[in-house]
């Protein structure tokens, strides 16, 4: 069914196929699927590093910049800068990365190399840093500095005995750490991981949308009626009951009672609605976080690409500029990108050359012209390509990137950033729901996209009958028929603010659902020609 414009309601009617038109293959983005590693060694081990100024690392299958950065005790941004990486979502097996300002490759020493007394002290050994020691004990560097009158936090000596404020002295070992907290086994009743995600220091928190109070770290309840107990044990009293898909602030994972029916002794330590601290068995919930560091790395990479270059985007909504050629007689290329609403990206300036599809809305850097082609590159995949000029739009192209919406498919949330007085500000963060991978739906594609247009509302069709089923308010289109929008409702229904499914699991037809008030905020806040959408994992 073709789409039509309804001037009476200022809406767009979108067919199912325009809502679900392409998928970027997950394997094309090696940095996808980042989650903190909460696995615990049976025997605690000390992970330490020799302090040097630079080393190198060879990327292996399954690696991500996040995991590599955590391994070396550096940030994703440092690795991106040291290697001139244009797309932090895309690294390759065999790629050699410079790790600047880091430790050398992490090595493992037997547990017990360092010593901690029962009185809350720790004896420094070779390779230790205050950061690693603080993380191991769940305290801050500042607390250790204050407790020991340390003048220079960068200078500690082997054999030095440090007081650890509030420490139990249970292990004296340091565990591997990521941006969301520390990990390491402390035995029965100990802390397995702490969750304390923070916005990077270089980003100002300047919230312009504050309707909902959302924690940076939380768990999504995956069962109906999960008990929240006063202790990590079934003997603990029930202080609350969390329903299916409820989101609860989480501060740690601890060891508690082993439940054979679930095969685990790990419990999430959470903050319940009344502020009470409680515990949920880990099997009953899934950890979620806001990946602010990765969001910042992605938008910084895009800003670096856009500055001082000619930026454009693929324009072929509903094949308005002509259907791309068939790929070997088919409608999908080897990377999973669909022919519909895409353009051909040729390896040379000839329609007889090999090609792949590049999706509508994809941001481009124009490198030059060759006859009827633009020579381009994109941050969505590596290489330089030639795209027929009819598919490339310079209309409202981004000359100065100042606003970015970063959608996280894995955690089902998003961060919204604005460049103010030369610095990035976090102006909003919220839950979001992305596209499902089912018969009538498609995942929201990873990558870097133009904000192409905004509409006050658009209509959508029933998957089976093709009849108009309802509308979604405050849409921002960024690729094909994919919009960031508010809660969808029936055709004649009033707008609905809230849906309990927002930020839970992928459910949409490739769009990104928001609470309606947040969609309205984005609709009013975005500026064509200055705003981009980035989809990460």
CATH hierarchy, class of the domain at 403-535: Mainly Beta
Could you describe the largest sheet, including whether it forms a barrel? 7 strands, mixed
Amount of beta strand: 25-35%
From the spread of the alpha carbons, the general shape counts as: globular
> What structural class is derived from the secondary structure elements?
mainly beta
| Strands, count | 37
Radius of gyration: 25 Å
- Average pLDDT metric: 82
CATH architecture of the domain at 403-535: Beta Barrel
CATH topology group of the domain at 403-535? L,D-transpeptidase catalytic domain-like
- Low-confidence segments, ≥5 residues, pLDDT <50? 1-53, 102-119, 167-188
Q: Roughly how much helix do the residues carry, as a percent range? A: 10-25%
At the fourth CATH level, what is the homologous superfamily of the domain at 403-535? Answer: L,D-transpeptidase catalytic domain-like
Please report the number of helical segments.
7
Distance between the termini: 33 Å
């Amino acid at each position: 069914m073709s789409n039509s414009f309804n001037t009476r309601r200022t809406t767009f009617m979108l067919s199912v196929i325009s809502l679900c038109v392409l998928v970027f293959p997950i394997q094309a983005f090696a940095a996808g699927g980042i989650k903190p590693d909460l696995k615990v060694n049976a025997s605690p081990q000390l992970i330490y590093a020799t302090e040097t100024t630079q080393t190198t690392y060879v990327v292996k299958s399954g690696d991500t910049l996040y995991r590599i950065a955590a391994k070396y005790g550096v940030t994703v941004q440092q690795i991106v800068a040291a290697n001139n990486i244009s797309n932090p979502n895309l690294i390759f097996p065999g790629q050699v990365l410079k790790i600047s300002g880091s430790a050398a490759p992490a090595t493992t020493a037997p547990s017990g190399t360092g010593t901690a007394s029962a009185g809350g002290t720790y004896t420094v050994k070779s390779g230790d840093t205050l950061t690693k020691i603080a993380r191991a004990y769940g305290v801050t560097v500042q607390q250790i500095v204050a407790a020991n009158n340390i003048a220079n936090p960068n200078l500690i000596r082997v054999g030095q005995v440090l007081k650890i404020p509030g420490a139990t002295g249970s292990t004296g070992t340091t565990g591997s750490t990521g941006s969301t907290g520390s990990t390491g086994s402390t035995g029965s009743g100990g802390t397995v991981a702490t969750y304390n995600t923070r916005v990077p220091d270089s980003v100002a928190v300047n919230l312009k949308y504050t309707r909902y109070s959302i924690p940076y770290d939380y768990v999504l309840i995956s069962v109906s009626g999960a008990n929240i107990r006063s202790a990590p044990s079934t003997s603990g009293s029930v202080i609350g009951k969390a329903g299916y898909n409820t989101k609860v602030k989480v501060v740690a994972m601890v060891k508690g009672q082993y439940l054979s029916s679930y095969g685990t002794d790990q419990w999430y330590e959470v903050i319940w609605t009344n502020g009470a601290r409680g515990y949920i068995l880990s099997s009953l919930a899934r950890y979620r976080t806001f990946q602010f560091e990765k969001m910042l790395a992605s938008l910084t990479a895009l800003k670096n690409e856009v500055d001082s270059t000619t930026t454009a985007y693929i324009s072929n909504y509903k094949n308005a500029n002509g259907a791309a050629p068939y790929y070997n007689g088919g409608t999908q290329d080897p990377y999973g990108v669909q022919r519909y609403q895409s353009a051909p990206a040729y390896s040379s300036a000839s329609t007889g050359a090999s090609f792949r599809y590049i999706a509508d809305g994809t941001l481009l850097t124009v490198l030059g012209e060759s006859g009827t082609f633009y020579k381009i590159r994109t941050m969505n995949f590596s290489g330089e390509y030639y795209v027929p000029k009819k598919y490339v739009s310079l209309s409202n192209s981004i000359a100065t990137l100042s606003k970015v919406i970063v959608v996280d498919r894995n955690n089902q949330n998003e961060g919204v950033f604005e460049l103010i007085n030369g610095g990035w500000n976090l102006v909003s963060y919220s839950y979001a729901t992305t596209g499902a991978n089912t018969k009538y739906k498609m995942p929201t594609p990873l990558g870097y996209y133009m904000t192409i247009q905004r509409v006050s509302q658009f209509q959508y069709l029933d998957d089976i009958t093709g009849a108009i089923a309802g509308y979604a308010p405050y849409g921002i289109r960024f690729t094909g028929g994919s919009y960031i929008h508010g809660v969808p409702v029936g055709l004649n229904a009033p707008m609905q603010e809230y849906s309990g499914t927002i930020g839970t699991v992928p459910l949409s037809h490739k769009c990104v659902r928001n609470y309606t008030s947040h969609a309205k905020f984005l609709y009013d806040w975005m500026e064509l020609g200055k705003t981009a959408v980035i989809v990460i994992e």
